[in-house]
Amino acid sequence: MIKKVVSAVAMTAAILSVSTVASYAQCGGASWYGPSFNGKRAASGQIFNENAMTAAHRSLPFGTKLQVTDQRTGRKVTVTINDRGPFHGGRIIDLSKAAATELGFRNRGTTSVCISQI
Question: Alpha-carbon Rg of the chain, whole angstroms?
Fold first, then answer.
């Protein structure tokens, strides 16, 4: 009897842990930043490195990993949220120079992306 109860509790806990995992997805504008912020502290307290695969988002927790897909080219990168922003209307994410380069929009400055938590 006790074995059945323990098994039922374990199964319930496993189901609850899977069902409470939050996922996040959004599409919108993206821009990039780097040179004037390189070496300075990001909102997370980390030193910003324009050559790292990082990003700024207004509300996602620091350390959140996102897959960013450029809607124009289909290129994808994985970034980690370590800063706050963007503070420009219509944009949902600010990417590091490295991430913008990988996606291929650094020269354009902005692009349309979809982001999803991984």
Answer: 18
Sketch the domain layout of the chain as residue ranges: 23-117
In SS3 terms, 59-89 reads as CCCCCCEEEEEECCCCCEEEEEEEECCCCCC
- The span from the CA of 5 to the CA of 20, in Å, is 22
Q: State which CATH number among 2.40.160.20, 3.40.50.720, 2.40.40.10, 1.10.10.10 fits the domain covering 23-117.
A: 2.40.40.10
Q: What predicted TM-score, i.e. pTM, was given to this entire model? A: 0.80
Q: Which of 86, 90, 70, 72 is nearest to 32 (CA)?
A: 86
pLDDT in tens, the chain (118 residues): 454 433 443 444 444 344 344 689 999 999 999 999 999 999 999 999 999 999 999 999 999 999 999 999 999 999 999 999 998 888 999 999 999 999 999 999 999 999 999 9
Q: What's the token pair of residue 117?
A: 């938590």
